[in-house]
Each structure stands twice: as C-alpha cells, then as structure tokens.
Fold this protein.
Amino acid sequence: MCGIVGYIGEQEAYPILIKGLHRLEYRGYDSAGVSLINPKGKLSVYKATGKVSALEEKCAAEDLSGTIGIAHTRWATHGEPNAVNAHPHLSGSGNLSLVHNGIIENYKSLRSMLEKKGMSFCSDTDTEVLVQLIEYTQQTYHCDVYTAVQRALKSVVGAYAIALLEKAHPDQLICARKGSPLVIGVGTDARGGKEFYVGSDATPIIEYTNQVVYLKDEEIALMDRKGGLEVVNLSNIKQTPEMHTLQLSLDELEKGGYPHFMLKEIWEQPNALRTCIRGRLQVKDKDVLLSGIQDHKEKFLNARRIIICACGTSWHSALIGKYFIEEAAQIPVEVEYASEFRYRNPVIYPDDVVIAVSQSGETADTLAAIQLAEQKGAFLYGICNVIGSSIARATHSGTYLHVGPEIGVASTKAFTGQVITLCLLGLAIAKEKHTLSDEMFHMLVEELQRIPDKMQWTLEHNKHIDQFAQMFTYCRNFLFLGRGYNYPLALEGALKLKEISYIHAEGYPAAEMKHGPIALVDEEMPVVFIAPKRGMYEKVVSNIQEIKSRKGKIISVVTEGDKTVRNMSDYTFVIPDTRDCFVPLLAVIPLQLLSYYVAVAKGRNVDQPRNLAKSVTVE
Ligand code: G6P
C-alpha cells in the first residue's frame, strides 16, 4: 500500500513523478503529494486529499521546477486521509522531506521520546516521526543525513520503504527499505551521465530505463548526480547492487482502448493463460514441466503435506488448488489465511512444502507467513505474478504466472493464472507420483490446453451482461452458491461484487445455505448458482429449487445446452462443457463481468474501489 516515486537527474522531475504516481495509484489513493528542490535550492511540498489528479490541479499554478523530487500516493494507516497527514512530511527545520510506505510500529514511543527532546509534530502519522527522528539523529551525532538514516532506522521497528530529499544537498537522493518494496531504475541522461528513478514497483520506471536494482531489506541507497549509486546496509557495510533487466513493456501498462483496466484484464485472460501454460503444458509429449518443481522434485515427492498461505482472491485460487492437488497428486493440502497462520503457532514439519500464492508478491501477511514457515524448516515455494517481488525472492523455488501486469485493484487474470498454475503443479506432481492413470493424465492435459479457447468462447457469449446489469443496482445483498470446485468460486464471485460495487455479498457451499443463509432469502435476494452439468448437478438443482420456493431470484451459470437449470432461472450465463476441476476457470468469467457491469452501472470507480489497495504491504 502507498506508492513512492523519486527522481534525480537532468530532466524536470515533476512530470516524471506525476506520471509515476498515476501508475502507482492502484496502491492507494487517499491522498497524494510531491516534494521538489528547485534550481535556487528551495524545497517545496504540495499535497492534496484524494487522487493524483487532485494534486495536479492543486499544483497547476505553482513553481514546479527542479531536477530532483519525491512523490507519494497514500493508503491511510496512521491518521485520517487529509492533507496534513499526506506525504511528503517535513522535518522540524524544513531541511528534510520524506515519503514512506509501511508502518513504523514503535512510532508512539519514538514520538514521545522526540517530544521530550522538544520536537513538535503537525500530523498524526508515523512518517513524520521517522523524518523527525532522522533529523534528530543528524543533529545529535553531527553526521551527514546518509549516516543519520542508517542510525535512525536501527531504532525503528516495523516496515518501511522511504525516499528522502535534503534541501542542503540537492544533488543527492536517499532511499531505504525493509519489508516494503523499492526499486531503483538506473538510466543514462542526454549527456551520458547517470540518472536515477525510484519506485514502489517498476511501473513508474519502465519508460525511462529497463535497468533496475531491487533494494534488499535493510539496505540504504544514496543516489548522487556525480558519484552514482552507493548501497550500504544498516551496519554501514557496502553492498554490491545487483542490476536486473526488466521484462516489462509499456503497452502492458496502458488501457489499450478499454474504459477500465479491469475490463481489459478480464478480456486478456485467454491470452494470459496461453502465455502461462506455454512450454509448461506439453500436449504432444503428454507432459507438464515446471522447472521450479523439476529442480526440487524430492521435496514434492516426499512432502507429508502442502500448506498454501494466501490472502484475498489468492486465497480463493489456493482453495481450488487444494481440491485439485489432493485429487490429482494425493497429497493433503491445507489452505491458510496468511494473516492467521503467521500469528498462530502452527505445526510445521521439515517435510512440509509451504506455498505462497500472491499476485503482487508483496502482501505483508503472506511474506511473514512464509518467513515463519522457513524458521520452522519448511521448503518454500512461491506462486507470484510480479517478477522479482519480495515473496518470489524469499522462497526456495517457484513459478511465475506470466499473465502480465494486473493494474485493476480487483484481481481477475491473476486469479485464473493462479488456478491454472496450481493445476499445472498438481499435474506435475501427479506425473512423478503416478497418482493418475496415464489416460486420465492425458485427458486432463489435453483439456487444460483447450481452456484458453473455451474461455474466449465464454467471453464472447457473456458480453451481453452489460445490458441487464442495471437491474441489480438496487440490490443490497447477493448470495453466491456452488459445490465442490465451485464453492471457492462462489467465494470469489461474492468478493468481486463486494469489492467494486459495494453490494454486500456472501459465498457459500450450496448445501450449507440451509444452515443459515437461506433465512435471508426473499424476493429481493438474487442468488447466483454455479451449476454446470457435471458432478453434483442434481444436488445443485435441488438447492436451486429450495431457493426458488422462497422466491429468491435465480441467476445461474450453466453448461451450454442445459435447459433444466435455464428454465428454473431468472437469468442464465452459459459456459462450454469442461472437466469439473476446470469449471472455475470458465465460470469465473460471467461472475467477473457481472460484478464489473453492476459496478459501472452504479457509477463506482471500478479500477480503484474505495478503501482498497492492490498491494497490501501492511498487516
Ligand atoms: C488485496 C487485493 C486483492 C488481492 C489481495 C492479495 O486485497 O485487493 O485483489 O487478492 O490483496 O494480494 P496478493 O498480491 O497477495 O495476491
């Protein structure tokens, strides 16, 4: 949460910073701010509540010159989202300006210590405490600000990614990280000199350079116009920055003619999945190759148990993965909310494999969960989308989704990418363990290969959802029901609707509705049934009947050609036939489109729903 951008070089900093903030707005949009040092050495700070566009309006008439600057888009943690609490925060003397992503857990004790020393504060934020602490350290030890940052951060408990300007040194930009992500882009200016970009991820950087350094935990970087890049750790030991080449293209970060990123990402799914399975699903050779597993085969073959830790949508895909891995590879799988797992004292055996599923690879709880598992000796596997992310780097092995950047806050293509990757993983282990007959294995491989085409068909046949979404805008509640593989999908359908339309929705195993939720059903309650003509079809039909006799409105996702459920339903979405285990990959499409169009009809901000952020880097 919160996005940080920074620049130092020859170019005007403000346009680079603003563009970068727009790219990072998915991380939070409660307020935004920018700080610049102009050619005369004046340090200015501009802030606005709300989105980056509000900041731009506010800045329109200001002096925005300067070739060094930092900027921030905020997802509020400490202090309400107003202009005072917005970043950047200034030190007492006005010499330092700081942006921060993360949470300083001991900020209260640090603040009272600083107050006792006579320092005063304008905001309620932990960030102001941090900038004051750095200034206090600088003054106490008569050291330069680079050293002061190192010393100050030693007394900080919590997570941070920071970027700092010092008025007295307009040729230097400093940043540091622990827990929260930070990327430094290294570019070449028009005169052949070095210029530096800072971002919470690489999206603000990619159009200027593809050379990046992912700052590691407890590292501090000094970017100097003349001296280049220097990195030290908290003990002031020099580190060698590792240069990576970004594999991201600018087109992937644009809306490409769609009104929202979410709609673009929904439609991208067939191609995204093709990329995800390319080279991995080998239909001709009837094989599944995941290098992350090949390299650590023994770990999976000898695994007593697999534990999957995740949050949000990733938790739902993990649940589908559990059903599949247990069925195909016969290994017990537990799915844990990372936020719960990390604070229990879970039993973890050295022969457990712990898988983290995370689109961003930065979710603080998921990261902490695998760190705990590692301490207890487990083998760690990461399933992430963002390349080079913290979780990808903290795990022993893993598989990237390769579905391209997901910008819409509500996850869509990452969900299907995760589900298909977990299916690949289940198949790869099953092959090694011989837990599936050859015939079944081949059938699953061939069917999985067909999924992107079937997904395209599903998209084409459900485009019309926009025409009747309007009807549901009056609803206050929704129920989503499914059985087997479609129970996690019911949870995901409900989450999507909640996230972007703000309509209350619950997902339930269809049979469980008799134990409570059915009491809510009346003629105003739409109930979405995922009812493919497969495994538990008859049972779901009975469940539909039970809702119908209580006058609930039935919306169903059915297999093409099924008339029985269609006739029982008020609205029907069709999907092509597929194996039970792959139904969620298709049935999710109408659910995503339904949420999207209901939210649009309600006038919601689909890509940036209120109070949410895409990457939750605080616990
Ligand atoms: C946030 C996002 C969700 C996402 C969840 C987990 O809540 O809004 O879309 O599913 O975090 O994120 P991760 O990056 O770990 O998958």
